[in-house]
Amino acid sequence: MSLKLKDKVCIITGATSGMGKAIAEKLSAEGAKLVLSGRDKVRGSKLESSLDNSIFLEGDVRELGYNEKLVETAISNFGTLDVVSLNAGILGLGNVVDLPIEVWHSTINTNLSAIFYLSKYAIPHLKKSKGNILINASIAAFKSFPNHPAYCASKAGSVAIMKQMAVEYGPDIRVNAICPGPVDTPLLWDSAKAFEHPESAVENAGKSTLLKRLGTPEEIAKLSLFLVSEDASWITGTAMTIDGGIINS
Protein backbone atom coordinates (compact mmCIF):
# COMPACT_ATOMS: atom_id res chain seq x y z
CA MET A 1 0.00 0.00 0.00
CA SER A 2 1.30 3.44 -0.94
CA LEU A 3 1.35 5.84 2.00
CA LYS A 4 0.16 9.31 1.00
CA LEU A 5 2.31 11.13 3.57
CA LYS A 6 5.32 8.86 3.94
CA ASP A 7 8.07 10.74 5.82
CA LYS A 8 6.18 14.05 5.60
CA VAL A 9 6.58 16.13 8.75
CA CYS A 10 3.40 17.67 10.13
CA ILE A 11 2.57 19.96 13.03
CA ILE A 12 -0.96 19.42 14.33
CA THR A 13 -2.51 21.81 16.85
CA GLY A 14 -5.57 20.90 18.87
CA ALA A 15 -4.36 17.33 18.57
CA THR A 16 -5.53 15.87 21.87
CA SER A 17 -9.28 15.64 21.20
CA GLY A 18 -12.05 15.78 18.63
CA MET A 19 -11.20 16.56 15.04
CA GLY A 20 -7.54 17.34 15.74
CA LYS A 21 -7.00 13.92 17.31
CA ALA A 22 -8.71 12.16 14.39
CA ILE A 23 -6.55 14.12 11.94
CA ALA A 24 -3.40 13.16 13.84
CA GLU A 25 -4.35 9.49 13.73
CA LYS A 26 -5.22 9.63 10.03
CA LEU A 27 -2.01 11.41 9.00
CA SER A 28 0.08 9.07 11.12
CA ALA A 29 -1.54 6.06 9.46
CA GLU A 30 -0.44 7.50 6.12
CA GLY A 31 3.21 7.64 7.17
CA ALA A 32 3.55 11.18 8.53
CA LYS A 33 5.93 12.20 11.30
CA LEU A 34 4.06 14.37 13.77
CA VAL A 35 4.61 17.20 16.22
CA LEU A 36 1.44 17.19 18.33
CA SER A 37 0.25 20.30 20.15
CA GLY A 38 -2.22 20.53 23.01
CA ARG A 39 -2.79 21.74 26.55
CA ASP A 40 -3.75 18.40 28.11
CA LYS A 41 -0.53 16.61 29.06
CA VAL A 42 -2.21 13.32 29.94
CA ARG A 43 -4.15 13.02 26.69
CA GLY A 44 -1.20 14.30 24.68
CA SER A 45 1.23 11.80 26.16
CA LYS A 46 -1.25 8.98 25.56
CA LEU A 47 -1.67 10.01 21.92
CA GLU A 48 2.09 10.31 21.46
CA SER A 49 2.62 6.78 22.74
CA SER A 50 -0.04 5.40 20.40
CA LEU A 51 1.41 6.89 17.20
CA ASP A 52 4.72 6.14 15.47
CA ASN A 53 7.22 8.97 14.93
CA SER A 54 5.31 11.50 17.02
CA ILE A 55 6.32 14.10 19.59
CA PHE A 56 3.85 15.80 21.93
CA LEU A 57 4.63 19.32 23.08
CA GLU A 58 2.39 20.67 25.83
CA GLY A 59 1.56 24.35 25.58
CA ASP A 60 -0.82 27.18 24.72
CA VAL A 61 -1.12 28.29 21.08
CA ARG A 62 -2.01 31.79 22.29
CA GLU A 63 1.66 32.22 23.24
CA LEU A 64 3.95 33.36 20.45
CA GLY A 65 7.01 31.57 21.83
CA TYR A 66 5.21 28.24 22.04
CA ASN A 67 4.40 28.39 18.33
CA GLU A 68 8.04 29.10 17.55
CA LYS A 69 8.99 26.10 19.70
CA LEU A 70 6.61 23.82 17.75
CA VAL A 71 8.44 24.67 14.54
CA GLU A 72 11.85 24.32 16.17
CA THR A 73 10.83 20.90 17.48
CA ALA A 74 9.84 19.73 14.02
CA ILE A 75 13.07 20.92 12.45
CA SER A 76 15.41 19.71 15.19
CA ASN A 77 13.84 16.25 15.37
CA PHE A 78 12.82 15.57 11.77
CA GLY A 79 14.87 18.02 9.70
CA THR A 80 12.05 19.60 7.71
CA LEU A 81 8.42 20.73 7.83
CA ASP A 82 5.82 19.83 5.21
CA VAL A 83 2.35 20.37 6.69
CA VAL A 84 0.76 22.60 9.31
CA SER A 85 -2.72 21.51 10.43
CA LEU A 86 -4.36 24.13 12.65
CA ASN A 87 -7.21 22.79 14.75
CA ALA A 88 -7.04 24.50 18.15
CA GLY A 89 -10.29 26.25 18.94
CA ILE A 90 -12.55 27.49 21.74
CA LEU A 91 -16.07 28.92 21.73
CA GLY A 92 -16.19 32.00 23.95
CA LEU A 93 -19.95 31.80 24.50
CA GLY A 94 -22.03 34.87 25.30
CA ASN A 95 -23.69 37.73 23.44
CA VAL A 96 -21.83 40.92 22.58
CA VAL A 97 -23.20 42.82 25.59
CA ASP A 98 -22.51 40.14 28.18
CA LEU A 99 -19.33 38.55 26.82
CA PRO A 100 -16.38 39.39 29.10
CA ILE A 101 -13.59 41.23 27.32
CA GLU A 102 -11.04 38.64 28.42
CA VAL A 103 -13.16 35.85 26.88
CA TRP A 104 -13.32 37.78 23.60
CA HIS A 105 -9.54 38.15 23.52
CA SER A 106 -8.93 34.54 24.52
CA THR A 107 -11.21 33.26 21.74
CA ILE A 108 -9.73 35.51 19.06
CA ASN A 109 -6.20 34.65 20.15
CA THR A 110 -6.84 30.90 20.18
CA ASN A 111 -8.86 30.66 16.97
CA LEU A 112 -7.22 33.37 14.85
CA SER A 113 -4.04 34.90 16.26
CA ALA A 114 -2.55 31.43 16.78
CA ILE A 115 -2.90 30.81 13.03
CA PHE A 116 -0.82 33.91 12.38
CA TYR A 117 1.74 32.96 15.04
CA LEU A 118 2.40 29.42 13.85
CA SER A 119 2.30 30.36 10.16
CA LYS A 120 4.83 33.14 10.84
CA TYR A 121 7.44 30.63 11.97
CA ALA A 122 6.41 27.76 9.70
CA ILE A 123 6.28 29.53 6.34
CA PRO A 124 10.07 29.88 5.78
CA HIS A 125 10.39 26.11 6.16
CA LEU A 126 7.26 25.33 4.15
CA LYS A 127 8.64 27.39 1.27
CA LYS A 128 11.67 25.11 1.18
CA SER A 129 9.62 21.92 1.24
CA LYS A 130 6.81 23.21 -1.04
CA GLY A 131 4.48 22.33 1.81
CA ASN A 132 1.01 23.42 2.81
CA ILE A 133 -1.17 24.83 5.57
CA LEU A 134 -4.66 23.59 6.44
CA ILE A 135 -6.86 25.66 8.73
CA ASN A 136 -9.79 24.07 10.53
CA ALA A 137 -12.35 26.88 10.28
CA SER A 138 -16.13 26.35 10.52
CA ILE A 139 -19.39 27.04 8.77
CA ALA A 140 -19.58 29.74 11.48
CA ALA A 141 -17.41 31.75 9.06
CA PHE A 142 -20.51 32.03 6.86
CA LYS A 143 -23.50 31.23 9.10
CA SER A 144 -24.18 32.93 12.43
CA PHE A 145 -25.34 31.33 15.67
CA PRO A 146 -26.76 32.89 18.85
CA ASN A 147 -24.23 33.66 21.59
CA HIS A 148 -21.20 32.93 19.39
CA PRO A 149 -19.89 36.40 18.40
CA ALA A 150 -16.22 35.76 19.15
CA TYR A 151 -16.33 32.31 17.57
CA CYS A 152 -18.05 33.50 14.39
CA ALA A 153 -15.72 36.49 14.05
CA SER A 154 -12.61 34.37 14.59
CA LYS A 155 -13.69 31.73 12.08
CA ALA A 156 -14.50 34.33 9.43
CA GLY A 157 -11.06 35.79 10.07
CA SER A 158 -9.43 32.40 9.71
CA VAL A 159 -10.92 31.99 6.24
CA ALA A 160 -9.76 35.50 5.33
CA ILE A 161 -6.16 34.92 6.43
CA MET A 162 -6.17 31.58 4.60
CA LYS A 163 -7.06 33.32 1.34
CA GLN A 164 -4.50 36.05 1.93
CA MET A 165 -1.69 33.59 2.62
CA ALA A 166 -2.63 31.55 -0.45
CA VAL A 167 -2.19 34.70 -2.55
CA GLU A 168 0.99 35.76 -0.75
CA TYR A 169 2.86 32.46 -0.81
CA GLY A 170 1.71 30.67 -3.95
CA PRO A 171 3.09 28.89 -5.88
CA ASP A 172 5.50 27.71 -3.16
CA ILE A 173 2.90 26.93 -0.47
CA ARG A 174 -0.69 25.76 -0.73
CA VAL A 175 -3.08 27.15 1.91
CA ASN A 176 -6.62 25.87 2.40
CA ALA A 177 -9.35 25.68 5.02
CA ILE A 178 -12.00 23.19 5.94
CA CYS A 179 -15.34 24.45 7.27
CA PRO A 180 -17.05 21.73 9.29
CA GLY A 181 -20.67 21.83 10.30
CA PRO A 182 -22.07 19.93 13.31
CA VAL A 183 -19.53 17.22 14.12
CA ASP A 184 -19.95 14.98 17.15
CA THR A 185 -17.12 16.33 19.31
CA PRO A 186 -16.86 17.77 22.83
CA LEU A 187 -16.80 21.27 21.28
CA LEU A 188 -20.22 20.71 19.68
CA TRP A 189 -21.72 19.71 23.02
CA ASP A 190 -20.15 22.78 24.64
CA SER A 191 -21.56 24.93 21.85
CA ALA A 192 -25.03 23.56 22.52
CA LYS A 193 -24.90 25.12 26.00
CA ALA A 194 -25.70 28.41 24.28
CA PHE A 195 -29.22 27.08 23.82
CA GLU A 196 -31.95 26.47 26.40
CA HIS A 197 -32.02 22.71 25.81
CA PRO A 198 -28.49 21.55 24.84
CA GLU A 199 -29.33 17.91 24.08
CA SER A 200 -32.20 18.93 21.83
CA ALA A 201 -29.94 21.49 20.13
CA VAL A 202 -27.40 18.78 19.24
CA GLU A 203 -30.14 16.42 18.05
CA ASN A 204 -31.73 19.15 15.96
CA ALA A 205 -28.37 20.08 14.43
CA GLY A 206 -28.01 16.55 13.11
CA LYS A 207 -31.58 16.48 11.82
CA SER A 208 -31.08 19.85 10.11
CA THR A 209 -28.37 18.55 7.81
CA LEU A 210 -29.44 17.26 4.42
CA LEU A 211 -27.96 13.89 5.42
CA LYS A 212 -29.94 13.89 8.69
CA ARG A 213 -27.04 13.15 11.03
CA LEU A 214 -24.01 14.63 12.73
CA GLY A 215 -20.61 14.33 11.11
CA THR A 216 -17.80 12.33 12.70
CA PRO A 217 -14.22 13.40 13.42
CA GLU A 218 -13.05 10.60 11.13
CA GLU A 219 -14.94 12.13 8.19
CA ILE A 220 -13.20 15.45 8.83
CA ALA A 221 -9.86 13.63 8.98
CA LYS A 222 -10.46 12.05 5.56
CA LEU A 223 -10.97 15.47 3.96
CA SER A 224 -7.96 16.86 5.80
CA LEU A 225 -5.76 14.04 4.51
CA PHE A 226 -6.90 14.73 0.97
CA LEU A 227 -6.16 18.45 1.20
CA VAL A 228 -2.66 18.10 2.69
CA SER A 229 -1.66 15.31 0.30
CA GLU A 230 -0.56 15.46 -3.31
CA ASP A 231 -4.09 14.38 -4.28
CA ALA A 232 -4.96 18.07 -3.81
CA SER A 233 -1.88 19.43 -5.57
CA TRP A 234 -3.89 22.00 -7.60
CA ILE A 235 -6.10 23.21 -4.75
CA THR A 236 -5.22 26.37 -2.85
CA GLY A 237 -7.07 29.37 -1.45
CA THR A 238 -10.18 27.23 -0.93
CA ALA A 239 -12.53 27.03 2.05
CA MET A 240 -14.11 23.62 1.67
CA THR A 241 -17.39 23.06 3.48
CA ILE A 242 -18.00 19.68 5.08
CA ASP A 243 -21.33 19.91 6.88
CA GLY A 244 -23.80 17.29 5.66
CA GLY A 245 -25.38 20.06 3.61
CA ILE A 246 -26.66 22.06 6.61
CA ILE A 247 -25.55 25.37 5.14
CA ASN A 248 -28.02 24.75 2.29
CA SER A 249 -30.87 23.51 4.46
UniProtKB/TrEMBL annotation:
Q: Which UniProt keywords apply?
A: Oxidoreductase
Task: Supply the CDD domains for this chain.
Answer: SDR_c
- Superkingdom, according to UniProt? Bacteria
Q: Which residues form a coiled coil?
A: none
Fetch the Gene3D superfamilies from UniProt.
NAD(P)-binding Rossmann-like Domain (3.40.50.720)
Q: Is Oxidoreductase one of the keywords?
A: yes
Record EC number: 1.-.-.-
The entry lists its GO molecular-function terms as: oxidoreductase activity
Q: Sorted alphabetically, which InterPro entries does this protein's record hold?
A: NAD(P)-bd_dom_sf (IPR036291), Sc_DH/Rdtase_CS (IPR020904), SDR_fam (IPR002347)
Q: Which family does it belong to?
A: Belongs to the short-chain dehydrogenases/reductases (SDR) family.
Q: Per its record, how is this protein called by name?
A: SDR family oxidoreductase
Q: Which source organism?
A: Maribacter cobaltidurans
Q: What is the lineage of its organism?
A: Bacteria, Pseudomonadati, Bacteroidota, Flavobacteriia, Flavobacteriales
